[in-house]
Amino acid sequence: MKEQILAQTRKGLQAGLGLLLITIVFMILAPSYRQFDNFAGIFAQSAVLAIMALGTTIVLISGGLDLSVGSILALSAVVAGRVLSGGDPVWMAILAGVSAGAFIGLINGFTVVTTKVPPFIATMGMMMIARGLAEMLGRGRDMSYFPESFKMLGSGWIVPSLIAGLALAATMFMLGKTKLGFHSFAIGGNEEVARLSGVPILRNKLIYYSIGGFLAGLAGVVEAARLNYVEPNYGIGWELQAIAGAVIGGTSLFGGMGGVGRTIIGVLIIRSLYAGLVQIGVDSYWQQVAIGAVIIIAVWIDTVNRKRAVEKSR
Amino acid sequence: MNNSTSKNLVEMISIRKEFPGVLALDDVDFDVRAGEVHALLGENGAGKSTLIKVLSGAQPCESGKITIGGEEIVISDPRIALSMGLRFIYQEINLVPDIDIARNMFLGAEPTHSGLLATVDHSMLYTRTAELLESFHIDLNPRTIVSDLSVTQQKMVEIARALISKAKVIILDEPTDVLEDRSRQDLFEVIRKLKHEQAVGFIYISHRYQEVYEIGDRVTILRDGHKMGTWDIDDLSMDQLIEKLVGGDATHNFPDLPSPQNDIALRVTKLCSGTRCRGNSFDLKKGEILGVTGLMGSGKTELGRAIAGIDPISSGHIDIHNKPAGEQNPRHRIKAGIVYLTEDRKQEGLIIDQSIRDNYALPNIDRLSSHNLLSHSEIDAEVDVKINEFNIKTVDRNSLAGHLSGGNQQKLMLARWLGTQCKVFIIDEPTRGIDIKGRFEVYRFMVELLNQGVSILMLTSDYAEALAMSHRVLVLHRGEIADVVDPENTSEEQVLKIAIGAEGLDV
């Protein structure tokens, strides 16, 4: 793994340096960016997206794609909100929220492996389905003013960051230490080789998509707790930010390469850009332009690296 | 032939091409005259396709020159070859399936109305296509969608397309590989017509050596990048031709095979799969290498893949160590002890942009982990031992598998599958793309596998390899076992005759 680790570490370093550079530039340009509150805000906002992006990273490494996680986030938040507004205990709300996420993820995996519909289409369909379900369950209902013990999950920047940290540790362990993780790289690297080597492709893909759904569900629950109200339009477009975070961190869109640690950096880059551009007074349209450009450049670098690796191996 | 005085349309002089570790073309001369079919023959890896790629501009050569119509041309780009009147028709069909014949024929060269807009002249498009088809007696409507055509018809359309603009030389690469016998005759008719009426020169590449006697005027034979010679086809008997193709040497370097045991390791009964594995039965003994050979398309790979559980089987049984092999998928087949080592190591065998270590660990990961947790130190230690044991030339275990040479990739494949409990290895083209030195190393490790109680089903199109490295050889012809021969008293020529279905035929 040394060459890979070196290449991966280099990518991680590149992303880390990028984050450092962005931070320094904004600190110079905007006095408000130097405040502790600013960083606390970036962390709080990054945490929820990061939890989701960890799952996205695993799916990407295994050669898949999940566009439904933004909608899953909303659905899970709505499910948790309804359980709470029904007066049921907090633990039940949390369990119901993340279970809903994991279940949708499982269905994604099932669709991808059984119908052979490309993941892009299968999960895009699920993006609409889950959003529709969230609207159905959540529209017109007042879901706010949750119990203190639930709000705890999203309080300040510390608790969401801690939860993201735990999710990071768990996914890192899964990718680095378990057979399941080892197989995800193999399946994403070359599915046919993995199949001919006896890797249970179908079962594993079900699990990867389920993890993606579970983490999106967890993100939804934390988001509900953080904002202290639930609306079914949570997380619109977040699936793309999650993918962008993973890719900026150096996870390959083509599968077989990547890591969750660097996804966190990628997510921080995106959130820092948003926060910084606001604070130096760039209007919101230009923010979109800038972030779009960063994503393209990051993927471009990935493509060039990939091509070079393949050419070298010829 | 009476056209020996006609001028050379294309002349290739002292073409030299090297790939890392292999001399693909060693100062090869080749020419085509107007109105002749010049057959280019050679075994896999002899350099035929390389020569054609150099001519087409797809690959540069190290030295040598090419003249077309007496004029020296540097073909650095496929478009130059096209503009000089060369037309290449490859083995695979190169048409857009969803549009009609006429649009395919004129793709990128559509006739247009004069005027600023230059819109496509549809009536011209269809009348010219109809004329062209008619001139070759191809009875097809220009408006037929290509995907509705048979493979033969598509091939004909491709040839007709090559002629919409003036073609001087047509290069046909294995044109009959996808054709049925009857339609081959149609194709030959078209070739003869073009040859006589328009003095087109043909370069004809084929594995079906009898065809050369039907359609060829001259023949050039390549072996291992060397030109063995060029002959008028009437001056070369089939026996001589085969002898030039395969040569009679190189057996002395093969290792001795230990005797197999009497137990049956693998029993295949009336196995049918797809269209190219048709009811084959045989036994493989413990410690035996059973060679399987035949022409391209004879069903070697299909047989191997069916046994390994990769492709579905329509009927028949597979027993391993006298027990049914179970579910038809690679995962269960590996558990039952049968593994398939692909000929396409870079696409199906190894993950080329991942490390040697991870590639080694892939099928062995169950053994190298406990309670689903990887044991990284154990993996590292075992990989280091295997790199040493199998003499895999690499900086260390973390190098990418794609950086290994072909021989070292094959040794890595053998090493990692030996690490599993598999006792039957199906090895497809064990030495394809591997240079001479690596080749004999692979053979030695195959013997080592036998010593460890493994049985090998070796699928190969190299007859020398089949005869020297097998205890018995199955010869396939069109998906069926044509004969089982004893390598001790069988020659390559005899194997080839069985493989092309010419056994007992006097040519």
Question: Would you kindly provide a written description of the structure presented here, covering whatever features stand out?
Answer:
The complex is a heterodimer of chains A (314) and B (507). Chain A has 314 residues and is mainly α. Helix content of chain A is 78%, strand content 0%. Chain A is built from 13 helices and no strands. In chain A, helix 2 (36-61) runs antiparallel to helix 10 and helix 8 (179-189) crosses helix 10. Chain A is globular and about 55 Å long. The mean pLDDT of chain A is 90. The longest helix of chain B has 18 residues, at 181-198. In chain B, strands 6-7-8-3-9-10 form a six-stranded mixed β-sheet, sandwiched between helices. In chain B, strands 16-19-20-13-21-22 form a six-stranded mixed β-sheet, with helices on both faces. Chain B starts with 7 loop residues before the first strand and ends in an 8-residue tail after the last helix. Chain B has helices at residues 48-56, 78-83, 101-105, 122-135, 151-162, 181-198, 209-215, 238-246, 300-307, 330-336, 345-349, 356-364, 376-389, 406-418, 436-451, 463-468, 492-499, and strands at 8-19, 22-33, 37-42, 63-68, 71-73, 86-89, 169-173, 201-205, 218-223, 226-232, 264-273, 277-285, 289-294, 315-320, 323-324, 338-341, 369-370, 373-374, 424-428, 455-459, 472-477, 480-485. The model of chain B is unreliable at 1-5 (pLDDT under 50). Chain B contains 17 helices and 22 strands. Chain B is an alpha/beta fold and 507 residues long. In chain B, strand 19, helix 15 (436-451) and strand 20 form a beta-alpha-beta unit. The chains are: A mainly alpha (314), B alpha/beta (507). The A-B interface holds A 1-5, 177-180, 182-183, 185-186, 189-190, 192-200, 256-257, 306, 309-310, 312-314 and B 308, 310, 330-331, 334-335, 340, 342, 347-355, 357-358, 361-363, 365-366, 369, 372-374, 396, 398-403.
